[in-house]
């Protein structure tokens, strides 16, 4: 598969440990998840008025996971904070205690929203296996693009910051591209690889990867001001 699917990889009644992707520090240790549920689209409330002939019945209701729940969104997941405390004193950011990386944000006093690009989830009985940062982020972004394009039949996306500013425009062309790299000898392999920091055994003569093909346009101050 192109990337692992979080929804398919998590199983109810299993113990999971949550790690900071940047440094490997444990965020949540041995949490047994009884319910793993998908969340509605992030903008679902904007369409409620089209379906209801009366005021929005969900206007004041929010979805908060219990201690043994994990709610999965398109680019994040919600966990009950339990006894874990990763909240920054300055604001509502959830940060790693070791490397101070932003992991997500607090939604309420007992709910934390973790970004899928910042946290690795593994069964508690498995040892932590670090993944190069660039490889992990590429995989998670590719997964989101494929899942969203399949569910919503759209192929154009924007990546926005917390302030609503658009940083990049992405157009998904296809999701069945196969990359093939001739690794050559171990000496040539040590000098250059296609993905830079992805470790590849020198005994493997050819490397192949499934990938998505996209067009992208950065939206930064020096370019595309409009």
Automatic annotation (TrEMBL):
It holds the Pfam family HECT_2. It is an enzyme of class 2 (transferase). GO terms for cellular component: cytosol; nucleus; ubiquitin ligase complex. GO terms for molecular function: cyclin binding; ubiquitin conjugating enzyme binding; ubiquitin protein ligase activity. It catalyses: S-ubiquitinyl-[E2 ubiquitin-conjugating enzyme]-L-cysteine + [acceptor protein]-L-lysine = [E2 ubiquitin-conjugating enzyme]-L-cysteine + N(6)-ubiquitinyl-[acceptor protein]-L-lysine. InterPro entries: UBQ-conj_enz_E2-bd_prot (IPR019193). GO terms for biological process: proteasome-mediated ubiquitin-dependent protein catabolic process; protein autoubiquitination; protein monoubiquitination; protein polyubiquitination. Its EC number is 2.3.2.26. E3 ubiquitin-protein ligase which accepts ubiquitin from specific E2 ubiquitin-conjugating enzymes, and transfers it to substrates, generally promoting their degradation by the proteasome. Independently of its E3 ubiquitin-protein ligase activity, acts as an inhibitor of CPSF3 endonuclease activity by blocking CPSF3 active site. Interacts with UBE2C/UbcH10 (E2 ubiquitin-conjugating enzyme). In vitro, interacts with cyclin-B. This is E3 ubiquitin-protein ligase E3D. It comes from Apaloderma vittatum.
């Amino acid at each position: 598969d192109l990337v692992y699917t979080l929804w398919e990889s998590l199983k109810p009644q299993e113990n999971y440990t949550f790690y900071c992707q940047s440094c490997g520090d444990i965020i949540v240790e041995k949490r047994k998840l009884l319910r793993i549920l998908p969340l509605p689209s992030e903008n679902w409330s904007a369409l409620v008025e089209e379906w209801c002939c009366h005021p929005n019945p969900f206007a004041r209701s929010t979805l908060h996971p219990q201690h043994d729940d994990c709610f999965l969104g398109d680019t994040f997941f919600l966990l009950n904070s339990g006894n874990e405390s990763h909240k920054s004193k300055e604001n509502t950011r959830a940060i790693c205690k070791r490397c101070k990386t932003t992991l997500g944000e607090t939604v309420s006093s007992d709910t934390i929203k973790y970004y899928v690009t910042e946290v690795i989830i593994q069964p508690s009985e498995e040892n932590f296996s670090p993944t190069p940062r660039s490889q992990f982020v590429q995989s998670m972004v590719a997964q989101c693009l494929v899942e969203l394009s399949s569910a919503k039949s759209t192929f154009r996306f924007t990546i926005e910051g917390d302030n609503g500013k658009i940083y990049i425009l992405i157009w998904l062309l296809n999701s069945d591209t196969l990359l093939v790299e001739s690794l050559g000898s171990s000496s040539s392999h040590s000098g250059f690889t296609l993905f830079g920091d992805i470790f590849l055994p020198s005994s493997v003569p050819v490397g192949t990867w499934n990938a998505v093909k996209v067009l992208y346009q950065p939206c930064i101050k020096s370019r595309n001001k409009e």
